[in-house]
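Please, structure for the following, as tokens.
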Amino acid sequence: MSNRIISLLDLPDEILLIIFNKLGSFYVLYSLLNSIQRLDHIARSIHYSNSINFSIELSDGQVSTIDSDKLHRFCVEILPQIHDHIQIITLETTSIERILLAAQFPNLNTLVLVGFSPDILSSYFTEKSPIIHLLKEQIKFITLKIRNELFNDISYTYVCERILSVCEKCIYLDINQSEMVRSSRFSIDDHSQNICYSSYLHTLIIRVEKFDDCLFLLDGRLKNLSSLTVRVSFIERLSIITDSREKLFHLKEFSLECPRFSTAYDCQIVRLLHRMINLKKLTLSFYIIRLKVIDGIDLNEKILCHMLNLDKFLFDICAIMPTWQTNDFLSTNDIQNTFINWKYSQVGCSIDRFSNGITYCHIYSIPFQMTNFMYLTNSIRNDYFPFVINVTLYDTRPFEYDFFQWMSKAIPLLKYLTLSNFLPQVKKLENQSCIPYNHLVRVRFTRAHIDYVYQFLCHTKAYVPQLSILKIQYDKLFTVTNNFTNVTTQINCRQLKQLLFDEIIVYPEHFHDYFPCLTK
């Protein structure tokens, strides 16, 4: 066999494209533009000059800035050569102005803004902004990836208002890019009731505080809105907004997600859905306290029969009922039978009768396409959740080793885990293989037995290379780490950047030796 070293230029274009696609357009342009003619030609192709990402997003959600020398070369040499090709730019806070003023960008229509503080972000959406003409006349698609610790509800709402009032040509606004369940939200007040008008916007993806905020956005001020994706913090039974029966003829897609229990299914959710008679796609995810199950019959009679044009229906619905109110013989087969002749997707189902007198009946579309799964129990073992990143575990039966082994495979992208279970594990076997959680960033132990702390902090039980945030009771952490001396937990603990306790703690002297990466 020949020992000849293969040069990059010996490879066919098809192989080069595979390699360059892994680098991303920023590094392809920086490395290849104005180089050898063949590589320069590839770099200038529309595939690499159409969209450029100037942000570096780290695994813990932080944003790193571009090297100043690289940025200088882009602004002085590269962007002036390809500016007429660029349609999409992703920017972080330190480089936005320099990049957008480096050339004309006649075809730029999309901005993705990453890691901005509310003050800096708002300053660009004013009449004095150096990029105001671009925002007003040219930008049609805006996505904000915000850091939760920088925003509160007031600043989040203000930024929403500024964008909608300044970006007159904007047709797409996504301001729900945070992966965290507890995030800043849009909320109406006396000031905002007279703002947020747009004649152009047709797609809005947003987080709101309460259901009234959702009704507010659908009161006609966004008159051409055809797609609304809204995450509501809570759905209240009573509304301060005048009840409207007006049909939402323009709305073709609607997605509603609420992570908290609500009793307002019939009086709020169903009533709003009755106004959406032209929907083609509907997505629902919520947890309802009521006296009977929500099944295929209920969905058909209360919602779907009013939507004759509906083509796609995705859902994740859990009904929480007092056990005495339900049929003791009600089974998953009984629920599945109500979906016979169901024209949408396959349906998964679980029923849990907990020892506290509460029954959960959980129904969801398969394949599961949501990113959150609240109240995952031992009963759900047969399905796959490829897009889920945020999970809450709850049960009144122990979570054993085989459950976590299944979870690692069934939820491969898991990043945020909340665990609530008082009961100790029963099957405490030795020599169990280590379970990988390759993307897990944060674990919250809320009312959790200490066995589950061992399950995730012992490096022989869990491989957690990305774990950086831990919320836990101090006494449990003290015990598991043996006063911060236990070697088997030190590997997983030494990478932690943030520890969250419910109480104020005076740490022992050697505490930071055990947690060297903690933010001080």
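Confidence is low (pLDDT under 50) at residues 1-5. Residues 240-247+264-274+285-370 form one domain.
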